Every structure is written in C-alpha cells, then in structure tokens.
Amino acid sequence: MSSDFAPLPDVCGVAAFSQGVRHTSNPDHTIFVSGLCLEAPTTPGDGLPTETAFLERLLAELFTQLAPVRRVSVPRDRITGRPLGNYAFVEFYEAKDASFAAAVTNGIFFRGQALQTRGPDLLPSLEGSQSEVKSQERVSN
C-alpha cells in the first residue's frame, strides 16, 4: 500500500469524508449526485465547519437513511479548497445499495434544489460502450 493512503476514520457512523483523505473507491458502489446548492464557504478560523464539510455531513445523513454509507466526497480544488462544482460522490458498502439509493433519491429536493443522481448501473462502463459500438458497426455493415 502506498504511503499516500491513510486509514479511514469512523465519523458519525460514516467511514470517512473527503477531508484531505486520499483513498481508492469502488466505482460499482459509488453514485454521482449533482444539483447541489453550495452557499458561500465559511472560513476555517471562525469555528464553524466549512460549507463543503457541512454539505458532506448532510449528504451522509440523507443517504444513510437508505443504506450504510462508506464515504461522501465533494471534490475540491487542491489549492483553494473550494468545491470544483455542484456535485458529489457517495460510496456505499454494497453495489445494490448504491443502485437503490440513486433510484430513490433522483429528483428529490435537497436544500431547495432537485438532485440528479446516477448509480453505477446507469453509467456505461468503458468496455461495454466499446463493445456496443463494435457490434453496431457490424450490424450497419
């Protein structure tokens, strides 16, 4: 194992948030969540959690209602620490839980915005898409 990886702490029943922890994830257990409302970030020195850390905790609470959550990650800029966009990744312990959570939460309102969620079964794998293209080429020829 590389020295870049740290053990994942258990925080509020969720294995880890993305607070600087480098980790590997299982794409079959991960869902993509977009449409998040990101408000003005708080500064770390004011004693309050940053907006992204707060959002990660809220998402963990939401998705833990459906299945055990392993990790919630709002991708951030390495230098500024600000979110890269209005999206996050939620990783579950089981692939079936990820698919279920994506199906149930797609379109629900969260902090005034409708969420769009995509589970592992809705995102085509690279191998699958390449074989589909090849089979379509054979049919058209």
From TrEMBL:
RRM domain sequence ranges: 29-118
Positions of the UniProt region annotated as Disordered: 122-141
PROSITE patterns hit by this protein: RRM
GO molecular function, one term: RNA binding
Highest taxon above the source species: Eukaryota
Organism: Cyanidiococcus yangmingshanensis
Record keywords, A-Z: RNA-binding
Taxonomic placement: Eukaryota, Rhodophyta, Bangiophyceae, Cyanidiales, Cyanidiaceae
Stretches of the chain forming a coiled coil according to its record: none
Protein name in UniProt: RRM domain-containing protein
Keyword RNA-binding: yes
InterPro entries membership: Nucleotide-bd_a/b_plait_sf, RBD_domain_sf, RRM_dom
